[in-house]
Amino acid sequence: MKEEEKEEREEELTETTRHLPTDVGEEIKDAYLSYAMSVIIGRALPDVRDGLKPV
């Protein structure tokens, strides 16, 4: 979904609605990118505390 479509859908929902319709593909892509970045930062980049040695 594009940003404009998301905003329109959110406006259509009532205040009592707690679930927003989302595109599963977009959610998976966002989650995967977040996970991949955390793995790269946590494992692949050398750290000063390790003497800049990859662990």
From TrEMBL:
This is DNA topoisomerase type IIA domain-containing protein. One of its GO terms (cellular component) is DNA topoisomerase type II (double strand cut, ATP-hydrolyzing) complex. Residues 1-22 are annotated as: Disordered. InterPro entries: Topo_IIA-like_dom_sf, Topo_IIA_A/C_ab, Type_II_DNA_Topoisomerases. Gene3D superfamilies: Topoisomerase II, domain 5. GO terms for molecular function: ATP binding; DNA binding; DNA topoisomerase type II (double strand cut, ATP-hydrolyzing) activity. PANTHER family: DNA GYRASE SUBUNIT A, CHLOROPLASTIC_MITOCHONDRIAL, DNA GYRASE/TOPOISOMERASE SUBUNIT A. Residues 1-14 have a biased composition (Acidic residues). One of its GO terms (biological process) is DNA topological change.
